[in-house]
Automatic annotation (TrEMBL):
<protein>
    <submittedName>
        <fullName>Gamma-glutamyltransferase family protein</fullName>
    </submittedName>
</protein>
<dbReference type="InterPro" id="IPR043138">
    <property type="entry name" value="GGT_lsub"/>
</dbReference>
<feature type="region of interest" description="Disordered">
    <location>
        <begin position="324"/>
        <end position="352"/>
    </location>
</feature>
<dbReference type="InterPro" id="IPR052896">
    <property type="entry name" value="GGT-like_enzyme"/>
</dbReference>
<dbReference type="Pfam" id="PF01019">
    <property type="entry name" value="G_glu_transpept"/>
</dbReference>
<dbReference type="InterPro" id="IPR029055">
    <property type="entry name" value="Ntn_hydrolases_N"/>
</dbReference>
<dbReference type="InterPro" id="IPR043137">
    <property type="entry name" value="GGT_ssub_C"/>
</dbReference>
């Protein structure tokens, strides 16, 4: 009402995703007797079709889930290590790996989707992939966000003469630019998904489809090999957890960088934010300072071992940082990688949350890296490949300098929160290094100020950058931004009230007493909630 999205509820399951057709694909699996794991994989595969610039089977990601039958949280890691073939010594700056065949890391998303279905699903891979195959084969009309992505990235990709022809033939075969309402048909992708549905993931990782990918990359000067694809394995991990306002918030452990999100919450836990005016300078100043301090710890101790991680999240460390948080002196420092990066943030990621009536709850965050990943589309397959080696630290002198075989630190944070040992919230967002920032901001709105889930996601957010720079959606009052400047932030307003630079959050809340699910989808993208 009153210009806001309504609260969506159900007792039979819920899917929140970044596109209506993808959310509907997941809901279709629930309606057909599948569970949350089938629906999550179906939603993820459908996003490959309707958000080809954001994620796909050639990307990578994490899933955090509550498994109802086992009454426990599990994490599925489908971020493969840096390929053994990666020629790390060739590079000394991040921009060398923004696009092209050398930027491509081993794809993990397909392995993750298939592992979810194999381990916990009820449906066959053919049933799970059927909605995505139909969308790719029949086509769909671009909505506003998708049209904007094509309009923005077409001229950027034209600069890469070795990559653009295959990309353009795949996404605009008649040579016409894509706009709102343009029909996007992806016959080659439909065929690839159909082959995988029939033959299983080995068709990609050890078979003919993978051979096509490797051969094309070799022709472009890439180094990825079939041995790199064969080495891809999903890993089940124990979650990392921290308490916040009566919740226990669970995220993937390192090499996932979600511990920054937990550390931010730990710092804020000791403050009475609820007593402050919501979206006022006192509230925002403390949240931004906590985010920057937590980011500094993550960057200084990237991919920490268990002992170091325990130290970072310990009461003593939190108290030390909290004293800095509340001392009133400006906080300055990096938010991205070891050395300051350009403010431009090309990460394109998507997140989805799914619940079912069997008590399962799952949050997936997956990505291609940059818009359309590496920009490499393999002819005849419909596959757009990631550029995740752009997120490997190759900078000379960095203590985190990447080597072949290293774990790839990943700025994602799909979360499941429990209360008294029962699952109550799945929440995740895209946004590169801003993921851990914007999730913390939304949790404060939801937990401290008591906003309904949809309103908490809609509330104004900010993106912090290296140094003291913070950009804030312009729905925050100008006098509040001026006061933040006085307090030492290089604060400025975006020229819009809603921007995907502040994420694209999807969430599902569960009332354990009534069994009612509440879904919420971010209007900063084409987010949507669907029910069976």
């Amino acid at each position: 009402m009153h210009g806001r999205r309504p609260t969506m509820t159900s007792r039979h399951g819920m899917v929140a995703a970044a596109h209506p057709l993808a959310a509907q694909a997941g809901a279709r699996l629930l309606a057909q007797g599948g569970n949350a794991f089938d629906a999550a994989a179906a939603t993820a595969a459908a996003l490959n079709v309707v958000e080809p610039f954001m994620s796909g089977l050639a990307g990578m990601g994490f899933a955090t889930m509550w498994v109802g039958a086992e009454r426990r949280i599990r994490v599925l890691d489908f971020v493969p290590p840096i390929p053994a073939s990666f020629p790390a010594g060739r590079f000394n700056k991040r921009s060398d790996l923004e696009r092209g065949p050398l930027a491509i890391a081993s794809p993990g998303n397909l392995a993750g989707w298939c592992e979810l279905v194999k381990s916990y699903g009820r449906k066959s891979l053919a049933e799970v992939f059927a909605p995505a195959i139909a969308l790719a084969r029949d086509g769909f009309a671009l909505a506003e966000f998708g049209a904007a992505e094509f309009e923005e990235n077409d001229p950027l990709l034209r600069k890469y003469s070795a990559l653009y022809p295959a990309w353009s033939r795949n996404y605009q075969p008649d040579g016409k630019a894509m706009h709102l309402g343009s029909l996007l048909v992806q016959s080659d992708l439909a065929q690839s998904l159909s082959e995988i549905a029939a033959e299983g993931p080995d068709h990609f990782y050890r078979g003919a489809l993978g051979e096509k990918v490797v051969a094309h990359l070799k022709a472009l000067g890439g180094t990825l090999t079939m041995a790199d694809l064969d080495a891809v394995k999903t890993v089940w991990r124990e979650p990392l957890a921290a308490s916040y306002r009566g919740l226990t918030v669970h995220v993937p452990p390192p090499p996932c960088e979600g511990f920054q999100f937990l550390l931010t919450l730990r710092l804020l836990e000791g403050l009475d934010l609820a007593s402050l005016p919501k979206d006022g300078p006192e509230h925002l100043d403390l949240v931004y300072r906590a985010i920057r301090l937590a980011a500094g710890e993550r960057i200084a101790h990237n991919n920490p071992g268990p002992d170091k991680l325990a130290e970072i999240l310990s009461d003593a460390s939190v108290e030390r940082l909290r004293r800095r948080l509340t001392d009133g002196e400006p906080v300055s420092g990096p938010t991205e990688q070891w050395t300051p990066q350009d403010k431009e943030d090309p990460a394109h990621t998507t997140s989805l949350s799914v619940a079912d009536s069997d008590g399962n709850l799952i949050c997936i965050t997956q990505s291609l890296g940059s818009p359309f990943g590496s920009g490499v589309v393999v002819p005849g397959t419909g596959l757009c490949l990631n550029n995740f080696l752009y997120w490997a630290d190759v900078q000379t002198g960095s203590p985190n300098r990447a080597k072949p075989g290293d774990a790839l630190a990943m700025c994602m944070s799909p979360s499941i929160s429990t209360r008294d040992g029962r699952p109550v919230l799945a929440l995740g967002t895209p946004g590169s290094y801003g993921i851990m920032q914007t999730q913390a901001q939304a949790m404060v709105q939801y937990c401290d100020f008591g906003l309904p889930l949809q309103e908490a996601i809609e509330a104004p957010r900010a993106r912090l950058w290296d140094g003291r720079l913070v950009e804030i959606e312009n729905r925050i009052a100008p006098e509040t931004i001026a006061e933040l400047v006085r307090r030492g932030h290089d604060a400025r307003a975006f020229d819009v009230g809603w921007t995907m630079r502040c994420g694209g959050m999807q969430a599902v809340a569960v009332d354990p007493e009534t069994g009612v699910f509440t879904g919420a989808a971010d209007p900063r993208r084409d987010g949507y909630v669907a029910t069976p």
